[in-house]
Design brief:
The protein is mainly alpha-helical. Helices cover about 50% and strands about 5% of the residues. It is elongated, with a radius of gyration of 20 Å. The chain starts with 12 loop residues before the first helix and ends in a 16-residue tail after the last helix.
Amino acid sequence: MQASTTMWDGSNWARSRFEALGWALAALAVAALAVPWFLWRDSTVAAGLPLWVWWHVGWMGLASVAFYAFTRYGWGVGVETETPEVSRDG
């Protein structure tokens, strides 16, 4: 028997749908908040750089953590297909 390296093994349809929806919402949030539209026309400066630059630095850090989590736990969620069991005996 082979151990699964991901949290999803394809056996629970409701869980797979819930997980796929969660990852889709996370991707939408990462994309939607990548541009700090709420900081437009804000001239606040922190440590010599505009606040929007700090937003990008922090957001890219958070986005990289989210992508790492996705590659570790969610890669392939929602795209697996039902395949028949194949016997190793032949």
